[in-house]
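Q: For a teaching session next week I want to show students how multiple molecules come together into a single three-dimensional assembly. I've collected the sequence lines for a complex. Could you give me the predicted structure tokens for the whole thing so I can convert them for display?
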Amino acid sequence: MKFVISSLLALLICAVIQPQALAEDAPATPAEPISNAAPAAASPALPAELRSKVKRAIDDGLRYLREAQADDGSWSDSVGVTALALRAYLESPRGYTEADGPFITRPIAYLLAHVKDDGSISETNHNRNYNTAVSITALAATGNDKFADSIANAQQFLAGLQLDDADGYERDHKYYGGIGYGGDERPDLSNMYMALEALKATDFDPDDPVWEKALVFVSRNQNNSETNDVEISVDDGGFSYMPNYSPHGGGESYGGMTSAGLLSLLFAGVDKTDPRVQAAYDWIRANYTLETNPNAKEGQGLFYYYNAFAKAMAAYGEPTVTDTDGKVHDWRRDLAEKLLSLQRKDGAWVNTISNRWWEGDPNLVTAWSIIALNHVYDS
Amino acid sequence: MTLRRLLDPLLAPCAAPLAVLAAALLLALPAALGHRTPIAAVLRAALRVAALALALAWLDGAGFQAGASAALAVGTLFLTVGAICLLAPPRAIAAVHALSLSALVALTLTPVWLAEGLASMRRTDGFIDGLVAMNPLTLLAAGTGVDYLRSEWFYRYSPIGSLRYDYPEALMLLSVWMAGVALLWVGVALRRAATRRHPKGRAFHIPQSNEAEIAP
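A: Of course. Below is the structure for the complete assembly, covering every listed component.
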């Protein structure tokens, strides 16, 4: 019996002892010049009255966030939400900067306090990609060169998450080139697009193999048999969450992911005339709506869709979308009016139907909505 | 390795401890419970099972801490079910064993069978984290840091991976489970003491055709 007990105790001790930290060989690559201009498109301006309402809605949203901010500068005890809220301020029409006070400098300090030795920026082990990606996007938006080292290390961390031959995934594997949450190996298009957006916003080397490998994975998430070499159950040109898998059922394409997929293609430098970009844009034309996240379960991922849609449309650069019935839509006006109609009296936005993907958190949803409106206003 | 290939890549690091645990609960535990001295037999079996889990985890490439943690998790879960069975009335041990295993599986699959409710929850503060903490897979995955709720399989059949949750700190989780196991085994020890004082009420009655030979 003593032997049994002492053996179990020995095992417990083994489990408790921290292993020697693995030596990191994070390359100390000098940071690329920082530039983080919000995508803009040449287009007719919003009507003056609506533009004024958009600006007021952004101000109201930022005021809500200011009141919801914790003393340490964070929002929702989350690096990711904090970074998004910070970005909402920095890219707003008022162009807030660090000089405006602690409500900007504290969240920056909060992000930097969560920088890990491996370059990641996260308060948790299982959202490292999202958190790191949105953090460096926000840090880059400050335009302050003193964050260059943190950004460069985080870029290497994000690039290191990509699955490739070194991880045992050969090119013909459906996961090849993908990036997941960062605490695991399973990649998805949402994480992929966040990482690519961050790398693009921080001027990551455009010749790095990361982009080409990313395109392999991104293309496999597109339900387009002409350009996708994995088996798909839908062939409509839109994008799903993982190759042939949607959380809304089967392998269906849906609005949030098609916007994310279109953005990913554009971030990776794919030309607008490329058949993948055209197929994605055609899907958006065929499913154009801002009443729902098209093809998603009721209310799910609605504000994620608005955010990704605004960025995708701004990056694509067309002021209007002509749907497949020939009707012309001014996407900025439609999105602005929709978001204005959904704003609460206290300035916040929140998904009142579904809590999935954290959309029950008004801090996150308000930040996403403001970033979407910033794109509407800036263009 | 076959199990590892069958599992989602995300769950693959848990393959060795999962395989050992399943075999131990289905084969080793009934044998130990049927032993002439079941308490000692269950404890010995737990040690062997933990050692096997440790060895396989190392062979599977797990690190030192992860292997030890997985071994402890396997041993703890084995001892939990073992203690529950030993506390059962003698003639109900087999039934309790089956029920315990069913409960373990049901607990593991809470994210799936609660999927509809989870998807429609407006506020999840604390509840989700509690659900995650109670899941035996969380204990198995704690040492490896595997985010099993985002595995393709769980993500496909449960919305939990898309909700906000945190895994409990590994050491804290292990401590709580081990404290629970310790309590159960105190109960087993008390029961054995009571049985010794009243031999006719022997707790560990395993019906056997040659009962006269194994009676004390």
